[in-house]
Write a structure and sequence with these properties.
The protein has 246 residues and is mainly beta. It folds into two domains: 133 residues; 80 residues, no CATH class. Helices cover 12% and strands 48% of the residues. The protein contains three helices and 14 strands. Strands 1, 2, 3, 4, 5, 6, 7, 8 and 9 form a nine-stranded antiparallel sheet that branches. Strands 10-11-12-13-14 form a five-stranded antiparallel sheet. A hairpin with a 2-residue loop joins strand 10 and strand 11. The N and C termini lie far apart (71 Å). The N terminus is likely disordered.
């Protein structure tokens, strides 16, 4: 009898290791982006080009928390004469679960004039915990981590951008809203997005049929009022980001 109980206990133990992670993650269906994608953007102020940005999905998968992940990197930098006045060279990155499109690790290396910030954020979706570590600006060593308790599925900016591309807008009407739950620095956000309909958008790459979206940005020193930020994605199965206006 004792041997039977021992075998049952071992069986349950093995099943916990084998299947324990699965209930914590849902599987999103999509086929409109993948490894090796590279998007390039210009940053404009009026008629002047003042910077450039690129978003790269690495051409191979990475294992994080025993999960298959995309490695995403976003680089943003000033260019031309602006570099002489206000040099910006930012690097944002994340390892994003390829099935659930939630982040496991995200990081930022911010260089904007004299300001700098290095940060690493780790997400444990099995126990709903988030750990953030910020480097000391003088020594470069990471300070003691801070831990936050999340409620359910939460995303960083990179995972949020990919998740947005899986949303079906075909049945939405102008003014319809949806929520993306996010975490940034030390704050949780319920980012409300308003669907503003379809229109043609002109870019340096040409004219595109586009979906117009308006994130509801809380009043702050930079943005004020409704539609202070507008984003467009292609009105096709790819839903690629085309343009952001602020």
């Amino acid at each position: 009898m004792k041997q039977l109980l021992l075998l049952i206990s071992i069986g349950f133990g093995l099943s916990a290791f084998t299947f324990g992670d699965e209930p914590s993650y849902r599987v999103l269906e999509y086929d409109n982006f993948g490894r090796g994608e590279r998007l390039e953007f210009s940053v404009n102020f009026g008629i002047f080009t003042i910077g450039e940005a690129e978003m790269i999905i690495d051409d191979k998968f990475y294992k994080v928390n025993h999960r298959e992940c995309y490695k995403i990197d976003i680089f943003g930098r000033t260019s031309g004469m602006v570099d002489w006045v206000a040099n910006v060279n930012d690097h944002w990155g994340a390892y994003v679960d390829s099935a659930a499109l939630v982040p496991h690790i995200s990081y930022r290396n911010i260089r904007e004039g004299k300001y700098k910030k290095d940060e690493v954020v780790r997400f444990d979706h099995r126990v709903n915990l988030i750990e953030t570590k910020v480097a000391d600006k003088k020594t470069g060593k990471f300070k003691e981590p801070k831990v936050y308790v999340s409620q359910g599925e939460v995303r960083d900016m990179m995972a949020g951008a990919l998740y947005l591309r899986t949303i079906d807008f075909s049945k939405m009407k102008k003014g319809d809203k949806f929520i993306i739950n996010g975490f940034f620095e030390d704050t949780f956000y319920d980012l409300e997005m308003i669907y503003r309909g379809r229109e043609k958008v002109k870019t340096k790459a040409g004219k595109f049929n586009a979906i117009r979206l308006a994130p509801v940005v809380p009043d702050n020193e930079l943005f004020d009022g409704e539609d202070s930020v507008i984003a467009w994605v292609t009105d096709d199965e790819n839903r690629m980001p085309l343009k952001i206006q602020a």
